[in-house]
Design brief:
With 285 residues, the chain is mainly beta. The protein has two helices and 16 strands. The chain has helices spanning 6-17, 19-22, and strands at 48-55, 65-74, 80-91, 94-110, 113-129, 146-161, 165-172, 180-181, 184-185, 195-202, 204-205, 210-220, 227-236, 245-253, 257-266, 270-279. The strands form two sheets. Strands 1, 2, 3, 4, 5, 6, 7, 10, 11, 12, 13, 14, 15 and 16 form a 14-stranded antiparallel β-sheet that branches. The protein has a two-stranded antiparallel ribbon with strand order 8-9. The relative contact order is 0.15.
Length: 285
């Protein structure tokens, strides 16, 4: 059984080992930092519903696809925030589905400076679906079989923010679950490793019509080097545009990609964005 399950187990091992890259950290991180830091819940005076979709390594067979929808906002009478998100990552025959709820408490440090502390908790489902197909894999025992495991998950975060700058630190996957399939236990290669995130940003008002927002993210998981995201986004909007703004930006992720971003925000209620990664690693060809 162990030998015959080797291929699907290695696929899921790969999914978990690179979790530092497939965690809820998208190229457009600045549009939804709540996905990695639960302390963001309640830091805005309104509820937000945000969905993100990422197609990675376009052109490669069975490449990763990630989709998430999140909702978060403040409570009515207390300086608290509530929220949650559903995330689904698909890699060939393997998948990971997360259902997470969050709670945050906000405290004013000064007139224009606040701190928020947040906790996220929920469940993750790992799945290998032998009813699908992957190129160049032929496993008659595995074919038609499904293997599923549910595991608890938790994250912690702290976030300090004002009207012009912000910064935070978060750690995901605090429990560090292993994958168990029947009587077979995958080694530490498939442990859902803890990931540490440090992030910050600043919004600089050039004129009443133009603003520039640089952000930085440092990401670290065990046995891997620190990965850095450097992003800069510019906003432009005129008064006669009825609260509509266009934005664009550039991003650089060490060891991975450079990115072009464009988007539109209108009526202070709706926003849509698109990004394209230009690979700088060995997969770019």
């Amino acid at each position: 059984m162990k030998k015959r399950l080797l291929i699907p187990i290695l696929l899921l091992s790969c999914l978990l080992r690179v979790s530092s890259q497939t965690d809820p950290l998208y190229t457009q991180f600045m549009t939804n930092p709540y996905l990695i830091n639960p302390a963001l819940a309640g830091t805005y005076p309104y509820y937000q519903i945000i969905t993100n979709s990422r197609l990675q390594w376009v052109g490669l067979s069975d490449a990763p696809v990630s989709n998430v929808i999140s909702m978060f906002g403040p409570t009515v009478t207390q300086p608290m925030g509530l929220g949650g998100f559903i995330m689904h990552d698909q890699w060939g025959l393997t998948s990971k589905t997360s259902l997470i709820g969050t709670y945050a408490y906000n405290y004013a440090l000064a007139e224009d400076l606040k701190i928020s502390m947040g906790l996220a908790a929920g469940m993750i489902q790992f799945k290998i679906d032998g009813n699908g197909s992957i190129d160049d894999i032929d496993d008659p025992v595995y074919s038609g079989q499904q293997y599923t495991q549910l595991a608890p998950d938790a994250s912690l975060g702290v976030y300090v923010y004002s009207s012009i700058y912000h910064g935070g630190i978060a750690m995901t996957h605090l429990i560090g679950n292993k994958l168990n399939i029947g009587q077979d236990t995958v080694t530490d290669l498939s442990r859902l490793t803890r990931n540490l995130y440090v992030h910050g940003g600043y919004k600089y008002l050039v004129t009443r019509e133009l603003a520039i927002e640089p952000t930085v993210i440092l990401r670290k998981s065990p046995a891997t080097p620190i990965q850095i995201d450097l992003d800069v986004r510019a906003w432009y909007g005129k008064r006669q545009w009825d609260n509509t703004k266009v934005w664009g930006g550039l991003s650089f992720r060490s060891q991975d990609a450079a990115t072009i971003l464009v988007g539109l925000s209108f009526q202070r209620k709706y926003e849509i964005g698109f990004s394209y990664d230009l690979g700088i690693n060995k997969l770019r060809t």
